[in-house]
């Protein structure tokens, strides 16, 4: 029995002892599921007039057709050209040279294999020889071949033009009228083909203007679009554009976009900025600099040539030797001799360049052969090249701050872009009679009412503008803290003052916290040791202070920011090895005020198993009050489990394992309590691999077994008869995999636990990475929290809607895009939308509605936090699970004492 603080008892389902179910391995056949179509439209909420960043498009010549051709580009000994930028240059030169031979057709090329025209070319298979000028050849060939081993040979070879063989073969005819199939929501195999062609036309138009292309976004090399975010990286603002088939017809979706580029200039300046070093002698050359510079392009000051970096030389410039052929004698044909010369001496003698600061630094290797090296100080990073490596926490914070645009600024930027791009003048779009309106599309939206929340002592409130506070309010179910300690890795924090203020603030919220048993400061001798050693030494002191009784809770002050190297090892030993709840604080962000301390208390109470607040509709059935919301009986009367699923991936280009996270609800009929199960899996794999993991002995070591058992044990031994699944992070092309792969594995895990009817499922994909934004038609602020749109801009057939549940205080709000793939439970549109909206108000660590449902938010946090454990674990030497890919190291399991706590808060 858990009691509401200061009020009457709140009867929650009991938690019986764990029982091991009898496992009977058998053949597990699962039903087949398919994506459902729209079940209707919602009507609840007050109406609101909106505009959206979709621009209506019309087609005057629907009988036109596109002709698709396959492009093959080779050179030399039939070596395929792989570099996308070089392939575009070859095709551009092809059309400049052989325009009449290509029937005078305008073209759109995707940079890979497909080329599109309006009308056929002269023949189904054409072959051409294309010669690129020296300015192209010397830059692009050196960037991907790098096979010249000596400076003299390199100079001669680089100025030879390149001859490319281009084959163009007819592939298909794509009728423009097929767009009408897409507008009807057809599942026909080729219904989306015309839309893909239209997007390629937009890419080609941007390429013709000299833009940098990044998928469907394009960027101008204009300093007005650049913003320095520190560390040698610059944010470049551009535009995203894509044609969409919507419920209201064909539209062009445009949005402000951004990519990161390398700040151009001397290479040494980039390294100093990236490593935050004051002098070159402080640069980490051995690993960090080498990894940072790989694949970047540089231009030499002495020859004005471009090269692609493959690494750093093993020796400094004045000790890096190579073989150089020189004439033997003062003249005549006396032959040649080979001498060993350093790179430093070569440039002094051959180029009359006296190197200064780079003599003792490594050279830039621009060939896979170690003899092709360039001195650092003669190389400048080429402008307008993408930076694809992971940003530091400081850079991410700067990027977030400098990317914010207020709604009216965003509207102005988009309307200006549509006018400036002059899409109607594009020859291919004009040939099809495609015109695009210059104004944002008007849509009718609705604003749902915020759900009522319950606090301690029977108090409740209705959030205003998506926000609430705990002023004069108490936590609903506080967990007393009697045996705890403050751990301090920082030298600049007054822990005594902090603990006193925290205790006083907690008392006002109904949470009783005794004075800390001890304050433990880090031994200064270990301040410069590795993070793992620092944590181990600190726990030796903790054990000595708690010899007979384990602390209930540890408040940890980190040495610097929360993303410090201490964080991962500390969390691992607390949550996995010792089973102790912990809350980490960053000394730079500690602010002794009521709101800050209240937020800390909310996190601590949730981690200890308490409940800060609940939806009123969750408590009213316990108090004998009839539920008001129409969707409540669907969940209150039938055991219902809620899942949130997400996969977190490592940095781009790395082989870091992906982290799969699934959170499941506890204590039905509550919908606000969750626990997480997390596993590693193969890098960059989006589908969760370990939902059901049968063992050789007939058992199951999968994620779902854990969550199903905990639901059963915390819900009065009820098995879930319904499961509502929220999946984050998948694209439309992966929707079927969610139903045929992940949902099947969940059913297998359920059946493996014993006999019984398969639960009914409602499967919803939640997306934040999309490009649709909602704006108030009359007003400069963001749309109000609870704004929903399920007409006009949604899919013409599929069951989807946009919801902006949160209050955007800074910048322009981005709504969540929900796709309902399956609904066996049978929600009406209003019931489902109200349910989704309510789940944005149950996030225990916040006093605001969040932008996406809480189960997804929890899953994302759990994956991110557990990923910290992998970052410092040594996974070298692990066996291979897949060909060419190392096995993902296993994550340590949570200690049984914290396994059901909301440790990810």
Secondary structure topology:
Elements lengths: L1 E2 L5 E2 L35 E7 L1 E6 L5 E11 L3 E2 L3 H14 L9 E3 L4 E5 L6 E8 L1 H11 L6 H8 L3 E14 L3 H5 L9 H16 L3 E3 L2 E3 L6 E5 L2 E14 L2 E14 L2 E2 H8 L10 H9 L3 E4 L5 E3 L2 E6 L4 E7 L8 E7 H8 L11 E4 L7 E2 L4 E3 L11 H10 L4 H15 L5 H5 L2 E3 L4 E7 L5 E2 L5 E2 L22 E5 L6 H14 L9 E4 L9 H15 L7 E5 L9 H12 L2 E5 L8 H14 L6 E2 H4 L12 H5 L3 E9 L9 E8 L8 E8 L21 H12 L7 E7 L6 H18 L7 E8 L6 E3 L10 E3 L9 E6 L11 E8 L5 H10 L15 H19 L7 E3 L2 E2 L19
Parallel strand pairs: 29-30, 29-31, 31-32, 34-37, 37-38
Antiparallel strand pairs: 1-2, 3-26, 3-39, 4-15, 4-25, 5-6, 5-8, 5-10, 7-8, 9-10, 11-12, 12-14, 13-14, 14-15, 16-24, 17-18, 17-24, 19-22, 20-21, 22-23, 26-40, 27-28, 27-33, 34-35, 35-36, 38-42, 40-41, 41-42, 43-44
Helix pairs in contact: 12-15, 14-21
């Amino acid at each position: 029995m858990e009691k509401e603080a200061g009020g009457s008892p709140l009867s929650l389902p009991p938690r019986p002892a764990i029982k091991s179910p009898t496992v009977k391995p058998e053949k597990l056949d699962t039903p087949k599921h398919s994506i459902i179509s729209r079940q209707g439209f919602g009507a609840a909420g007050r109406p609101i007039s909106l505009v959206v960043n979709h621009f209506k498009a019309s087609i005057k010549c629907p009988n036109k057709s596109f002709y698709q051709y396959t492009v093959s580009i080779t050179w030399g000994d039939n070596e395929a050209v792989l570099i996308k930028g070089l392939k575009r240059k070859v095709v551009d030169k092809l059309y400049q040279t052989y325009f009449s031979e290509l029937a005078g057709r305008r073209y759109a090329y995707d940079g890979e294999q497909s080329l599109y025209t309006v009308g056929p070319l002269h023949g189904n298979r054409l072959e051409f020889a294309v010669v690129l000028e020296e300015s192209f050849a010397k830059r692009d060939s050196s960037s991907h071949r790098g096979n010249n081993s000596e400076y003299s040979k390199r100079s001669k070879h680089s100025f030879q033009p390149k001859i490319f063989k281009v084959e163009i073969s007819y592939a298909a005819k794509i009728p423009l009228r097929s767009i009408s199939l897409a507008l009807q929501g057809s599942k026909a195999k080729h219904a989306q083909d015309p839309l893909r062609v239209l997007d390629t036309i937009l890419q080609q138009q941007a390429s013709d203007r000299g833009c940098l292309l990044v998928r469907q976004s394009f960027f101008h090399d204009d300093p007005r679009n650049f913003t320095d975010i520190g560390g040698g990286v610059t944010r470049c603002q551009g535009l995203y554009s894509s044609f969409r088939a919507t419920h209201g017809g064909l539209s062009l979706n445009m949005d402000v976009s951004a990519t990161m580029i390398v700040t151009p200039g001397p290479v040494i300046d980039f390294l100093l900025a990236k490593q935050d070093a004051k002098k070159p002698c402080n640069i980490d050359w051995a690993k960090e600099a080498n990894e940072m510079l790989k694949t970047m392009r540089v231009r030499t000051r002495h020859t004005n040539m471009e090269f692609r970096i493959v690494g750093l030389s093993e020796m400094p410039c004045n000790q890096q030797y190579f073989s150089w052929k020189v004439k033997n004698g003062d003249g005549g044909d006396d032959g040649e001799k080979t001498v060993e010369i350093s790179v430093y001496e070569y440039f002094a003698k051959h180029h009359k360049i006296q190197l200064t600061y780079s003599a003792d630094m490594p050279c830039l290797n621009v060939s896979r052969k170690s003899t092709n090296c360039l001195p650092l100080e003669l190389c400048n990073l080429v402008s307008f090249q993408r930076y694809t490596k992971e940003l530091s926490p400081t850079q991410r914070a700067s990027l977030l701050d400098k990317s914010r645009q207020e709604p009216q600024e965003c509207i102005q930027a988009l309307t200006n872009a549509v006018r400036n791009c002059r899409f109607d003048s594009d020859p291919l779009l004009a040939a099809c009679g495609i015109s695009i309106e210059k104004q944002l599309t008007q849509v009718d939206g609705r604003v749902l009412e915020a759900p009522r929340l319950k606090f301690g002592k029977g108090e409740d409130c209705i959030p205003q503008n998506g926000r609430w506070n705990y002023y004069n309010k108490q936590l609903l179910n506080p967990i007393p803290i009697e045996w705890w300690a403050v751990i301090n890795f920082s030298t600049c924090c007054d822990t005594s003052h902090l603990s006193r203020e925290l205790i006083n603030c907690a008392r006002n919220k109904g949470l009783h916290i005794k004075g800390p048993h001890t304050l433990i400061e880090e031994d200064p001798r270990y301040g410069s040791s590795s993070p793992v050693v620092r944590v181990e030494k600190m726990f030796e002191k903790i054990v000595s202070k708690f010899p007979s009784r384990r602390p209930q809770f540890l408040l940890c002050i980190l040495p610097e920011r929360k993303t410090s190297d201490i964080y991962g090892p500390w969390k691992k030993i607390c949550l996995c090895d010792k089973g102790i709840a912990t809350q980490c604080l960053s000394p730079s962000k500690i602010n002794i005020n009521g709101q800050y301390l209240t937020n800390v208390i909310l996190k601590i109470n949730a981690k200890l198993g308490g409940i800060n607040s609940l939806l009123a509709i969750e408590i009213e059935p316990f108090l004998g009050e009839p539920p008001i919301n129409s969707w409540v009986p669907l969940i209150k009367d039938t055991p219902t489990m809620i899942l949130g699923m997400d996969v977190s991936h490592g940095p781009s280009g790395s082989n870091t394992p992906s982290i799969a996270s699934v959170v499941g609800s506890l204590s039905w009929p509550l919908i606000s309590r969750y626990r997480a199960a997390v596993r590693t899996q193969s890098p960059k794999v989006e589908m969760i691999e370990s939902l059901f993991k049968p063992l050789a002995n007939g058992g199951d070591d999968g994620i779902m077994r854990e969550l199903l058992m905990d639901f059963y044990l915390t819900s009065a031994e009820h098995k879930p008869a319904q499961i509502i699944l929220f999946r984050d992070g998948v694209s439309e092309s992966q929707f079927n995999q969610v139903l045929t792969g992940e949902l099947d594995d969940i059913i297998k895990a359920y059946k493996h636990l014993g006999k019984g009817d398969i639960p009914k499922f409602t499967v919803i994909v939640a997306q934040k990475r999309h490009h649709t934004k909602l704006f108030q038609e009359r007003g400069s602020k963001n749309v109000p929290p609870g704004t929903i749109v399920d007409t006009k801009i949604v899919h013409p057939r599929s069951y989807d809607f946009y919801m902006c549940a949160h209050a955007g205080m800074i910048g322009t709000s981005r709504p969540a895009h929900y796709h309902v793939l399956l609904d066996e439970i049978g929600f009406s549109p209003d019931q489902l939308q109200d349910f989704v909206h309510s789940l944005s108000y149950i996030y225990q660590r916040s006093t605001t509605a969040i932008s996406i449902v809480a189960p997804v938010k929890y899953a994302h946090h759990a994956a991110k936090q557990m990923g910290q454990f992998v970052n410092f674990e040594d996974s070298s030497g692990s066996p291979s699970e897949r060909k060419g890919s190392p096995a993902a190291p296993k994550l340590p399991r949570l200690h049984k004492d914290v396994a059901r706590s909301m440790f990810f808060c």
